[in-house]
UniProtKB/TrEMBL annotation:
It comes from [Clostridium] fimetarium. Gene3D superfamilies: Dockerin domain, Single-stranded right-handed beta-helix, Pectin lyase-like. Residues 30-98 form the Dockerin domain. This is Right handed beta helix region. Keywords: Signal. SUPFAM superfamilies: Pectin lyase-like, Type I dockerin domain. Pfam families: Dockerin_1. One of its GO terms (biological process) is polysaccharide catabolic process. The lineage of its organism: Bacteria, Bacillati, Bacillota, Clostridia, Lachnospirales. GO terms for molecular function: hydrolase activity, hydrolyzing O-glycosyl compounds. Residues 1-26 form the signal peptide. PROSITE patterns: DOCKERIN. CDD domains: Dockerin_I. SMART domains: PbH1 (SM00710).
Length: 510
């Protein structure tokens, strides 16, 4: 069967050579085209040939090339991937098409809530969300046990994904403390899948998985951004949840002056078996990942693989100053920027003309009363931390296990990998940290593995258990690492800003 497949693939490739030349569209230089296996900016016969040679064993595709070649995401590169590229070139198919015939299609918030109730009563099923922006005026609550419900965003023809926009829900909670009832998507049940959706601007967490009944849920290929607490939280006994290819950025709790809003927050007694794979967290107001625990409420087991975080806890991101200094456009999706614009109608105009001036009056209510949002006062009152992976708290004991593999952290003003006064048992394999104040701050940990651990350009010396050390790469490797990381970050940012969920992108530096 394997040889037959190879022969069929070879035959089809030669047939296709006579049928197709190249696609009629070119790629933006900063965005990789779907099906662009050779990464040359076009989809053409050479992408088909690259797959053919891989099938025949002449060459081997790896990394992003392999990901691009697996066009139907079935973890197998074969004739069906060749056929998908052929259809793309000939314009006979939308490369992002999802077959929705086996489920319920919804296009509104009310339709989504009704479908969840109906599908849950019928014992499970698929709900497909279509559209560009779905205005959500309240919470999406998922509480069924063994629900077997999948909520799947259907990609649009331009490659963008549906946005669940909770800004109208959030408008009632500005200048107020928020809680579980203000979470955007709240899962207290089991066996739910959330896929292909952008969750933004919730009054609290974007997604929360909470409670001892909240298990075996999957969040895949999603973005959580601009929420008023952590992008995604797992807590209070929630167990065996898989978080894969989720991108969490620019979440900020304005009311708490930047505190609490991590990219990912598996904390306060999250249950066992929760895993993060291929997830990225950046420019959130608190930490990248935070597994903070209180006394007798411990998070015993967490796994991180192929994950990365950068530049979390930077107060200047949320006033717009960070983007201004980089020459980037004003991000009006940030809640603080939105409030500043409402106070000062000239702020955005001056920003665009090259002048950054914040209002100096006290006009935004926070947990510390009102604060004057000049650059100095915002920074001096800021409550967010600036850590990458935070692994617990002073209550976290050696019975709590953290498994970290192929993970990257950089650009934090505090720690890259941080014990936060915890005493975890941890395993580190193939990790990289650079440009953090402390790259590795894990002195009390009990290490069961510490293999191929690299770090450079930390402003303070690493704090490690006795007998362990971090390898400093050569100058050449450092330069190559920076270049690869920068290119990958740029790709991720460009796609996310365009409402394109990046999918399974990896840094490939380990």
């Amino acid at each position: 069967m394997k040889n037959l497949r190879k022969i069929l693939s070879l035959f089809m490739a030669f047939v296709l050579v006579s049928m197709v030349t190249q696609s009629t569209f070119a790629a933006d230089s900063s965005i990789r085209l779907t099906y662009d296996v050779t990464n040359d900016g076009i989809v053409d016969i050479f992408d088909i040939l690259a797959i053919q040679y891989h099938i025949l064993g002449t060459t081997t595709l790896s990394g992003d090339n392999q990901i691009a070649a697996d066009t139907n995401n079935d973890n197998n590169i074969d004739i069906f991937d060749i056929l998908n590229i052929q259809r793309s070139i000939l314009g006979t198919t939308n490369t992002n098409t999802i077959d929705t015939s086996d489920g319920t299609i919804v296009t509104s918030y009310s339709g989504l809530l009704a479908a969840v109730t109906r599908v849950q009563q019928s014992g499970g099923g698929k709900i497909y969300v279509e559209g560009t922006t779905i205005s959500c005026t309240g919470q999406i609550s998922l509480s069924g046990l063994n629900s077997n419900i999948s909520i799947i965003g259907v990609p649009n023809s331009d490659g963008t994904y549906p946005v669940l926009d909770f800004s109208s829900f959030r408008s009632s909670y500005i200048d107020k403390a928020s809680s579980d009832s203000q979470v955007g998507v709240r899962i207290t049940g089991s066996n739910y899948t959330i896929k292909n959706l952008i969750i933004e601007k919730a009054p609290d967490n974007g997604i929360q998985i909470k409670g001892t009944a909240a298990g075996n849920n999957t969040i895949y290929n999603c973005i959580t951004r601009y929420n008023n607490d952590a992008g995604l939280q797992i807590t209070s006994g929630a167990y065996s949840n898989t978080i894969k290819s989720v991108y969490s950025y620019r979440n900020c709790d304005v009311y708490t002056l930047g505190g609490n809003a991590d990219g990912f927050a598996p904390k306060l007694g999250a249950g066992i078996g929760n895993t993060f794979y291929g997830c990225y967290s950046w420019e959130n107001s608190d930490d990248g990942w935070d597994s903070y625990d209180n006394k007798d409420v411990l998070t015993y087991d967490l796994s991180y693989e192929q994950c990365a975080c950068w530049n979390n806890g930077d107060p200047t991101v949320f006033t717009g100053l960070y983007d201004f200094n980089k020459g980037a456009a004003l991000d009006s999706n940030l809640l603080l920027v939105e409030l500043i614009n409402a106070k000062d109608s000239t702020f955005a105009t001056l920003y665009a003309s090259g002048t950054f001036t914040l209002p100096t009056s006290s006009f935004i209510v926070t947990s510390a009363s009102t604060v004057a949002y000049s650059p100095a006062s915002w920074v001096s009152n800021y409550k967010g931390n600036s850590n990458g992976f935070k692994f617990g708290s002073t209550y976290t004991t050696s019975s709590c296990v953290r498994t970290i593999k192929n993970c990257l952290t950089f650009g934090h003003k505090s720690k890259g990998f941080d014990n936060n006064n915890s005493a975890c048992t941890a395993s580190f394999t193939n990790c990289v940290a650079f440009d953090n104040a402390y790259n590795y701050n894990i002195l009390p940990f009990t290490l069961t593995a510490f293999s191929n651990i690299r770090g450079f350009s930390g402003s303070s010396a690493d704090k490690l258990p006795s007998g362990y050390s971090v390898t400093a790469p050569t100058t050449t490797v450092q330069s190559t690492t920076r270049s690869t990381v920068t290119a990958t970050v740029n790709t991720i940012n460009t796609k996310c800003k365009s409402n394109i969920i990046p999918g399974e992108i990896y840094f490939n530096i380990y």
